[in-house]
Amino acid sequence: MSQPRVPWKAVIGGSVGNLVEWYDWFVYSSFAVYFAASFFPEGNSTAQLLNTAGIFAVGFFMRPIGGWLLGRYADTKGRKAALTMTVTLMSLSALLIAIAPTYASVGYFGAVVLLIARLLQGISVGGEYAASATYLTEATPAGKRGFASSFQYVSMTAGQLVGLGLQIILQNTMTKEALNSYGWRIPFVVGALGAAVVFYLRRNLLETEAYDEEEQDKEAGKGERGTIKALLAHKKEAMLVIALTMGGTVAYYTYTTYLTKYLVNTAHLPKETASLVSFSALFIFMCIQPLAGGLSDRIGRRPLLITFGIGSMLGTVPLMTGLSSVSGFTGAFILSLVGLIIITGYTSINAVVKAELFPTHVRALGVALPYAIANALFGGTAEYVALWFKQAGIESGFYWYVSACAAVSLVVYLTMRETRDAALTRAEREGAAESVPVRA
C-alpha cells in the first residue's frame, strides 16, 4: 500500500499566513523594550514593561471572543473564509500600532490606540489558531497529520524569527536613540504589508474535503454548526483542550516571548546578545517541529505530550535558575535550547490533537474557544506574572508556577485517549470499518 502524500500546497498556504499572523503578534513583545517608554511616563523600566505586558495580556483576553466569532465562522462559512478574515484583521492591527501617537505628543491616547490594536490582534489570533489547526489537519491524510500540522508551530516560530531577525538588523544599523524614537515602528509596517500578500495567497486555497462533506450532508443540522449548543455536546473534549493547553502555553510563552526580556532584565545581558540567543535557539526549535510531529504519526500523540509534561515539571526550576545567572551567549543559548526541546513534545502536535478530538461540524469552534480561554488565563498572563514576581522580589516563584501548570497538564496527558487514528472524512471512516476483523 502506498504511503499518503503530504499536500504541500495546502500546508504552505496555511503556514505562510500563520507566519505573518504570528510575526505581528510576537513582534509586539520582542520590540516592547524599545517602545514601552513611548506610551507611558518616564520612570522605572520594569514598571514600563509591566504596562506594556498588561496590554499584551489584554490581547489574550480577546482571544476567547475571537475564538468564538471566528471559530463559528469557520464552521459555518468554511476554513478558507476564516483564514482570510483573520489575516485581514491582523493587517489592520499592525497598521494601527505603526501609526500610534506617543505619550509625549498626546498623553495616554497613544496607549489607547495601542490597546485597540491589541484587542483586534486578540480577536484575529483567537480565530487564526483554530482555523489554521483545523485546515492543516483536515487537508492532510491520516498517517501524515502530525507531520503536516507541526508546520503550524514552524510558521509561528518563523514569524517570531523574522521579527527577531529584523530586530537584530535594526540594532546593528540604527542608533539606540533612533530605535527608541521611531525605529520600533518599522516591523509593524512590514507586518501590515506582509498580511496584504498573504490575503491574496489564502484566497487561492482549496476548501477541505471534511468541510465539503459536511456542507453536502442534507441531514446535517446546519443551523447548529459552530454553535455553543453544539459545543456543549462535547463538554468533555472542550475541558480536555483547556487542561492539556494549560502547561504547554505557559511554558511556550516563558521560553519564547518572555525570554529576551528575562535575559535583559534579570541576567543583565545586552539587548543585542539576548536577541541573538533567542534567534539561534528558536531557529533550531523550528527545525525540529516536523521531526517530532512525524514521530507522533508513528508512536502516537500521548507519548510526546507525556514527555513534555515530565520535562517541564521537573526541568523548569533548574533551567530558569541557571538562565538568571548566565554571563554570555553560550550558556544562555544552551539552557534556552534545552527548554525549547522539552516543550517540542507539546508544540509539535498540540494543534492536531485538539482538532482530532472534535467532529467536523464543531471542530473549529471546539479548538478555538477552549484553547483561547486557556491562553487568556495562562499564556497571555505568563509574562505579566513573571514580571509581578520579579517586582515583588520573589522571582523564583514564577519558576514554580510554570512547573505547577505543567504538572496539572501531565495528569491530563496520562489519562486522555489517543487521537492519532481518528477518522475525519467519509473515506477514512469506511476504511477503518473495513479494517476491523469480522468475528466468526
From TrEMBL:
It is a multi-pass membrane protein. Keywords: Cell membrane, Membrane, Symport, Transmembrane, Transmembrane helix, Transport. The keyword Transmembrane helix applies. Coiled coil: none annotated. The chain crosses the membrane at residues 22-40, 52-70, 182-201, 238-255, 275-292, 304-323, 329-353, 365-386, 398-416. Pfam families: MFS_1. Residues 10-420 form the Major facilitator superfamily (MFS) profile domain. It is found in: Cell membrane. Belongs to the major facilitator superfamily. Metabolite:H+ Symporter (MHS) family (TC 2.A.1.6) family. This is MFS transporter.
